[in-house]
Amino acid sequence: MLECRSCGAGAPVDEHFCPQCSRILALGRNGDYFSFFGLPRRLQLDPQDLERRFRDLSRQFHPDYFYNAAPAERRASLERSSYLNDAYRALRNPVARAEHLLAIEGVASPRADEGSHKVPPALLEEVFALNEELDEIRELREAGADPAALQQRLDAARAPIEQKRQEHERDFAALSARWDAAAGDGPAVQRAVLEAIRERLLERNYIANLLATIEREMAAA
Q1: Cα gap 153→27, rounded to integer Å
Q2: Of 98, 127, 135, 184, which sits most exposed with the smallest number of CB within 10 A?
Q3: How far apart, in Å, are the Cα atoms of 154 and each of 119, 126, 168?
Q4: Beta strand pairing status for 10-11 and 2-3?
């Protein structure tokens, strides 16, 4: 519960204005971007609906409306405006949205660099083949091989990784839909879906690192 600094009334944490005196509420420790927007914890969101909610709240929180208000209200409008921007940036991006969901559901979100260490089991074959190919390409480059020929080999090496990325995107979309449908399936099922989403995010990080490695080799060639 939040306490209104103007009248002292209590308000739920997902309320923006006091139910008693209608003054803007201090932000408090919300932490849930979905509830801040008045949305359920779903991974498939309507972008137009999200943008509409963002613009509506932007107008309500805009500091210009609180120019002559008490200092506490001016501060609250700035806090909510800043938090709104952070929440919108996260929720409009499917990956950032999933990472936020993991965080508020108590599942450790994978760090961006976490995918650069342990190879995810689903990528072992591709990683092994790519590393062998890159080693050969580096040796050829050092021996003065034709750059155009090296670029062709790098393009060919990139193809299976790009295919894996596309497969990953489809799997991630399917898991997002599975989470949205799991509301009545109980905590155990929901946790399993969240863990699967985390694994897909780890794979995504690793795939991004592999593609970045190929890009560096292309630049060197």
Answers
A1: 55
A2: 184
A3: 21, 14, 21
A4: antiparallel
Contacts of 188 (CB under 8 A, 6+ apart): none
Q: How many CA atoms lie within 13 A of 38 on its CB side?
A: 10
End-to-end C-alpha distance for the chain, whole angstroms: 60
Q: Which CATH architecture has domain 2-92?
A: Orthogonal Bundle (1.10)
pTM of the model: 0.85
Residue 162: CB partners within 8 Å, gap ≥ 6?
Answer: 211
- Summarize pLDDT for 72-102 with one digit per residue, the tens: 899 999 999 999 999 999 999 999 999 999 9
Instruction: Kindly list the domain boundaries of the chain, sorted by start residue.
Output: 2-92, 114-220
Q: Please name the residues in contact with 164: beta carbons below 8 A apart, sequence gap of 6 or more.
A: 123, 126, 207
> How far apart are alpha carbons 51 and 91 in whole angstroms?
10
Residue corresponding to tokens 């060639």: 221
Selection from 63, 64, 98 nearest residue 84 by Cα: 63
- CA angle, 172 as apex, 193 and 98 as ends, to 5°? 70
Q: What is the pLDDT of residue 38?
A: 94
pLDDT for 117 equals: 60
The whole-angstrom distance between residue 126's C-alpha and the CA centroid of its chain comes to 25
Q: Residue 148 and residue 154: Cα distance in Å, rounded?
A: 10
Calculate helix-pair angle for 47-61, 71-91, nearest 10 degrees: 170
Element (H, E) at 172: helix 147-181
